[in-house]
Amino acid sequence: MASAIGSGAADWVLDDLETDEMVLNMGPQHPSTHGVLRIELKTDGEVVKAARPHIGYLHRCFEKHAESVDYPGVIPYTDRMDYVASMGNSLGYALAVEKLLGIETSPYVSTIRVIMAELQRIASHCVAVGTYGMDIGAFTPFLHLLRDREKILDLFEWTCGARLLYNYNWVGGVSHDVPEGFVKACRQFLREYDAITIPELMDLLIGNKIFIKRTAGVGVLPVDLAISYDLTGPNLRGSGLPRDLRKDHPYCGYDRFEFAVPVGKGEHGPVGSCFDRNWVRCIEMAESSKIIHQALDLLEKTERADVHEKVPKRVKPAKGEVYARSEAPRGQLGYYVVADGTGVNPYRVKVKSPCFTAMSVFHVLAKGMMIADIIALIGSLDVVLGEIDR
Amino acid sequence: MDAKAIHERLVTRFGDRVTGVNLEVASPFAVVAEDAIVEVAGFCKSDPALAFDNLMCLSAVDYPKEAPPRMEVVYHLLSYRHDHTFALKVHLPRENPTVPTLEGIWGVANWHEREAYDMFGIVFTGHSDPRRILLPDDWIGHPLRKDWQDPDFYNGMHVKPTAQMAERAMGGEKIGVGPFDFTPPNRHVAE
Question: Which CATH number applies to A71-357?
């Protein structure tokens, strides 16, 4: 890959290096790049003059595979894109195909989907915030958060048998109804989570003076840059724009629930810093808990329905195309699905991954930073390489 | 604005440069002449009534069986100010598809266009960094084209057993070296 250094890249080539400058190769095995991400850094001492990310180490031909299996067969592949938040991926795909077919799921199924998606959001943010703390030197919060993630994975395992890659959201339904006693167990988990984990997290990490000093003012992302580079989710909200698909264009009946959309306020420095992005994630974890509480209440009141009722025997949409968005834990996940009306396979599936676009702004933000702050920046964007490379 | 109004606004401004429209599908789109895409996209972003400040997605699709055979580049736009969406399409020939880059209008187009080049071989003229993005730099061909065939070799390594090789291997003949040994049972498993 050494030849890649000089292969017509935009900002710089190896021959341009000044005497004081050095090219530093970060990754693909670096533990803080959250997967197999390689970054070339042009450095002058400790200061990064230019950065060039290289992705594709985890490319598994998702879009090519999707063309060779039928519509429901794509769902296990979607799980493997963002493997930290699989529920969100398959939900987005199921919604896209349902839109293409004109299916509307029953309120019971929608409520289950909301519960699972929000549990997954908590689990995903646990990993995001936990590993972020670990990246910049706070080891303890990671253990506390992984403890809670484990409990969520247990709930998932109980429901559908899998801990990470669920194949749970089907086109028109979900694979399994929630088991007997799920609501009670989920409430029990949330009680502990609300009473212990959230205050603990706020005390240990977010309110920690060292953490604040380390992150506030680092990696500031102005809101216009965020929009131009299509950053979404907590990254966009961290920059101060309160946009959330669950509020703006509610799907799965999110409009039935009360919750707030936190935005970065810049309490300890400029708005849009690494601190704000992580603060937004932490508040979102608390908000997700509120949604689940309401959804569990609703689930108890809703009449139990067959979760496979609307699942079509054969998915064969008419000729058409759809671009469907959903709010995955890492931002807006978009599926562009084209149906040609003849076969049972999708003609084309394109995924707009929120991590892909978050990584594309990296070279702009990295310019002029210290090398140690690059670690803080990557973690705060919360990228999962499985989703970038697909 | 709904999709119909957006389309009308584009037609009044650009006339016959907007060559087609489909408002029936779930995500309505307008087809734009390829040499006008920079102008149209710039107008979509700067016009206060449209204000498409965000490019949600840029995809390419290959249609070898349509008449005439074509490639499409699809731009899904979103306006944060007005909260409306629309899509623009450009039709390109399948031989040497070329379209101007939009990275000057939306920054995110840079990586999306690299991916479209990587997977479909669409050349975006004026692109600042026209390299492959997901596949290795020495990869040959563009795999998401519908006429793509898997190669037998990559850098001199057999990556796909041919039917004859499989047959010979099933007959017990030792074929290939190293990890690309197809002889059953695999010689690298300790006996």
Answer: 1.10.645.10
